[in-house]
Amino acid sequence: MAQKKAHEVGGWLSRPDPNTRLVLIYGPDRGMVSERARGFAEQTGLPMADPFAVVKFDLADKDADSGRLFDEIAARPLFGGHRLLWIRNAGAQKFVADAFKEMLAAPPDDLTVLVEAGELKKTAPLRKLVETADRAMALPCYPDEARSIDALIDSELARGGLSIDPDAKSALRAALGGDRLASRGELEKLVLYCQGSKTVARADVLASTGDVSALSADDIVDCAIAGRVAALDSRMRRYLAGGAPPFLLLSSAMRQFQLLSLLRHEIDVNGQSASAAVARARPPVFFARRALVETALRQWSTPAIGQALDRLQQTVLQTRKRAELAGDLTGQALLALGVYAQARARGGQNRSR
Fold this sequence. Notes:
The chain is α/β, with parallel strands linked by helices. The protein is built from 16 helices and 7 strands.
């Protein structure tokens, strides 16, 4: 089978099979997915800044359609050599699986495809295809467990020339683990805080790190969708301060509002209730989020969801033009969505009185 268990992924990525033509990295820990994808891309030895050698294709873009994807796969390097096609935000799009099925039927030797995706069920077409193909590999990424958190702590502190007391390590371990990039950001802050010392003490951990164990991009976007503005603002500030890239928030927001759009269609066109639409969603909505999504479907109309997606898309474009303002632009967009949802929620409460 062309897949690895979560604890085997690091080992495979340290020595990837050069004959593999398609690598799928997926899972709920978007920070880990992004980090591992970047590491794999760099291991190819291709110049990351060369658009002819490394082609980046974001399926969250409005112009990301099946025709362009098929064209990118079929293209050949202008000046010869090898090429990397790096695809982000893959999910349940059928045309993606169809394009890769055609490619894997006769894998080109001058192309490697790297795909980043969120959580994929075993029955997802893309995951099923990759797991059963000969020259492909599926690599799952789940939130860090104790063993991998310890390894991350050890590697980051060793890079800063630091050791850590057992009590301090226990406190640090408890504060990390929700998202790989956020955890790494907290460790980088700790290393800076302890510059000039040789050992990290418990007091250093408590003084320099926040609790990011429950902090993830999806949690923050949920606050925006539900109109929890105060929680949204504080969590977003902590998330960005931890070094996590803003594009993960925008990617999560695009994905979640696209889901709301599909479910809202079932309500408006097929006459389903919010609870029925959520219950029948494919892929299914996680049990813990069902109540939140049902409430959101009552607060967000189809036009409002469309406007939210347009705003998020514009923000994506703005952050690419002004990378130095990416955090501020992302924060403004999500806060605007949160304020709208909060107003809708308060309006519903007033009408029910």
